[in-house]
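Continuing from the previous page of notes. For each protein in this section, the sequence appears first, followed by its structure tokens. Read the first protein now.
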Amino acid sequence: MFELLALLVPIARAQLGEPPDVGLPTTELPQLIGNIINFVLILVGVLALAFLVYGGFLYITSRGDEKQISTAKLVILNAIIGIVVIGLAAALINFVVDAILQGGAGGRPPAGPPGGRGARGGL
């Protein structure tokens, strides 16, 4: 009987005050989503870098074959475009997540018209 009561003590303690720390993450949802997206962008960036290396390898080993040179140039061009798009996407995602976490437009209140009056001049 006392063993059963001993098992219920942590449950009762959680009801009285703050809940016990169970090791769950305490980050906000937008930050968590941003971290996941950044992780995926890093993986895709590594893949794009691998394609850049592959294109360079094709170019070096082409031995003057025009078809292989054009294929290598196309792979390199697409890899560079991919890296640029990934960089822009990472910058945009980080900007949006920071704006959400700070409460809108960078945490600043919207600017009103000069003089502090409304559009009708305070009428």
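Done with the first. The second protein uses the same format. Note its length before scrolling.
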Amino acid sequence: MISDVSLIKKLKICVMFRSEFGSVRTAQSLAATFVGHLAATVLTLISVSNVLSQEKSCCTVACRGSVQSVCLSASGDIAGVALYGENSSIDVFSSKTGKRVGTVSEFVAQSPWCFLTSKGFLVYPITIYIAATQDYRGGIRIFDVTNNKVVCEGKQTDSASLTACISTDGSRLATYYSSGEIKVWNLANGDCLATLKNSDASAGLAFVEQGNRLAAVGEGCTVVVWDVMKAVPVGKPTRYEGYGVAVSGMLDEKTAKVMTSRGTVFEVFPDGSCKTLGQVDLGGQPKSGSISSDGRIGAFVYVDTTECFDLTTRKLIRKLDASSGFRGQCCSVSSDGKFVCTGAIKVVAQSSSEFSVWSLK
């Protein structure tokens, strides 16, 4: 539980340095063996420079259960991790120390999601919104992580929830179900505001136009924008090659951005139209991804690494390698694009996971 906000804010970031040689000492040893003492000195300086530019503050925490999703607060100093297993839970950690500062465990969920938000994306007090599949029926349960209590609960549906998104102000949640329906929920009381039928949002959802419209990205990267209250699609569907990897509404909720498996980045507008912004050079077939709410940073998750791109210049800025014996599962970029949280599952024992918070500053 979070009892002293000032204490958490004063915690210092733990910085871990690594290099492609494993350590600076290893780099020195290799250089000395092949090119002598002088070359070793030069290579050591180069190695130290690479370490400082490639990997800054990293906090890694081991968890029990299979990680389903991760999220970051607006400033990146608090991380949420949704875990599925014998004892499903949502855990909240300080990104600076790796210390658990809150937990939610009193729920049954096949595929839990977690969102860190409150009005205006304030970090404190923290409220976690969970779109949880309970007994294979999709519903929502809204928790206050500070006391592990249910704030409100939405009615269950007859099918499993697959994807979800939350509005910037934390007032609405949209969930997509295997039945082909999207439901939009009022997070103040758990009421269902709208049901969008015959839809496909298997790749992701994002609110646009201040929560009045919803961008749904489906199979084959087909994009449809919905008028939420009228429950009708707006404009014509737009299709891109590949499949959708990441969908995110922008901070002002006027537009949304989407990244595809082909590396295409495009913008979605409230009238249903789309505009291609460019292409990034991917290192393979990504499993999942995330886009910062300011639209600057995009991250792609692979089995053994996560690639982070500057979406303005479309250049690769960081590679974040998963620990040995773990495979990448999911990621989340903070809204300001300064931090990335990655989640990975242990290959041998899938009931074990880890998450890491990286600084891109």
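What the second structure shows: Residues 4 and 101 are 10 Å apart (CA to CA). The chain is about 10% helix and 45% strand. We return to this in next week's lecture.
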